[in-house]
């Protein structure tokens, strides 16, 4: 089944060229089916690139998904045309009276910035708090995972001495958990962050189920027992070239970055990298849509309430 996005969104042509079923609003309106409503709060600077990456993963499902894009504020963007933002993105005030089946909050390049120094921190907290009563399941990605842990568990910011950058092997825990269905015992996923997510620390200070970890990268995947909050500390949405582009950017800014681990052939940045995590990324998002959203959400979103959710698989 397709994802449903605005007809002129740049991602439409890209995804169609990849043989991904994208349905325009006109055709979708004629179908007698209740699509899932998923909101993406895009905090990344290159919004067109990021929205395409997430839409690609959301498309790998038999469910029809109606996607809306949300921006954090109306400040001008250095990396995304104003016309694109004005055409395809909504302000929070436009959606705050509605309910959604799913919310994805992307990462942001704020690893070395204290929460209270983030210009939109108060507004982000407002949106995260709103989601408790208006969203069936929220997926926090990378920096957003750290922000979500601060809001839900009052955990302080924990920063690594060096940036974690590369592709790391992870081991699954609780192999029968719905989010992990179909996962290999060990799988690869990319990370690009300064945040520290120690398994021992999260186990001691939260009630989260820790679902996948790495000896080097720490916790990769965790969720509340009711599956209404899912934390992914890496970037399963990244394209093959994304870590390379970040590495080149950091070099250009004189940051002397480390070469991303387990990424380039023979650790040689002159060699083209390939995505070794693509299948995992698609499966993760498919499982989230199915088991955390579709099988938990009320059919009538206007009747959204805590009682609508069950803790059964």
TrEMBL record:
| Catalysed reactions, as listed in the record | L-homoserine + succinyl-CoA = O-succinyl-L-homoserine + CoA
Gene Ontology cellular component list: cytoplasm
The EC number(s) this enzyme carries: 2.3.1.46
The record's section on InterPro entries has:
Class_I_gatase-like (IPR029062), HST_MetA (IPR005697), MetA_family (IPR033752)
* Amino acids binding substrate: 163, 192, 249
This protein's UniProt keywords: Acyltransferase, Amino-acid biosynthesis, Cytoplasm, Methionine biosynthesis, Transferase
Name by which UniProt lists this protein? Homoserine O-succinyltransferase
Q: What does this protein do?
A: Transfers a succinyl group from succinyl-CoA to L-homoserine, forming succinyl-L-homoserine.
- Keyword 4Fe-4S found: no
**HAMAP family registered for this protein in UniProt:** MetA_acyltransf
**Metabolic or biological pathway, per its Swiss-Prot or TrEMBL entry:** Amino-acid biosynthesis; L-methionine biosynthesis via de novo pathway; O-succinyl-L-homoserine from L-homoserine: step 1/1
Q: Which organism is it from?
A: Vibrio agarilyticus
Sites marked Important for substrate specificity: 192
- Keyword Transport found: no
Listed under GO biological process in this entry are: L-methionine biosynthetic process from homoserine via O-succinyl-L-homoserine and cystathionine
Q: Where is this site: Important for acyl-CoA specificity?
A: 111
Source organism's superkingdom?
Bacteria
PANTHER family attached to this UniProt entry: HOMOSERINE O-SUCCINYLTRANSFERASE
Q: Name one GO molecular function term.
A: homoserine O-succinyltransferase activity
- What family, per the record? Belongs to the MetA family.
Pfam families with a match to the protein in the record: HTS
Give compartment(s): Cytoplasm
Q: Which gene encodes it?
A: metA
């Amino acid at each position: 089944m397709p994802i449903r996005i605005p007809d002129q969104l740049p991602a439409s042509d890209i995804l169609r060229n990849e043989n991904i079923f994208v349905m325009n609003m006109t055709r979708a309106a004629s179908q007698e089916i209740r699509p899932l409503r998923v909101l993406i709060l895009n905090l990344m600077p290159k919004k067109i690139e990021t929205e395409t990456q997430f839409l690609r993963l959301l498309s790998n499902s038999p469910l029809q998904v109606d996607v809306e894009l949300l921006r954090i504020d109306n400040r001008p963007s250095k990396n995304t045309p104003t016309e694109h933002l004005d055409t395809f993105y909504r302000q929070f005030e436009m959606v705050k009276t509605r309910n959604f089946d799913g919310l994805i909050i992307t990462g942001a390049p704020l690893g070395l910035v204290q929460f209270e120094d983030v210009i939109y921190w108060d507004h982000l907290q407002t949106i995260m708090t709103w989601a408790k009563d208006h969203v069936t399941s929220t997926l926090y990605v990378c920096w957003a995972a750290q922000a979500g842990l601060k809001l839900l568990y009052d955990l302080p910011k924990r920063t690594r001495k060096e940036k974690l950058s590369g592709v790391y092997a992870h081991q699954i825990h609780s192999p029968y958990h719905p989010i992990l269905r179909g996962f290999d015992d060990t799988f690869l996923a990319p990370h690009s962050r300064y945040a520290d997510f120690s398994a021992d620390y999260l186990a001691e200070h939260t009630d989260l189920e820790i679902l996948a970890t790495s000896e080097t990268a720490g916790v990769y995947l965790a969720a509340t027992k009711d599956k209404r909050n899912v934390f992914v500390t890496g970037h399963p949405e990244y394209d093959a070239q994304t870590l390379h582009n970040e590495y080149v950017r950091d070099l250009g800014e004189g940051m002397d970055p480390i070469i991303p681990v387990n990424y380039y052939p023979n650790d040689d940045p002159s060699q083209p990298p390939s995505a070794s995590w693509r299948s995992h990324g698609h499966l993760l998002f498919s499982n989230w849509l199915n088991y955390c959203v579709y099988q938990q959400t009320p059919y009538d979103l206007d009747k959204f309430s805590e009682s609508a959710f069950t803790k059964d698989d």
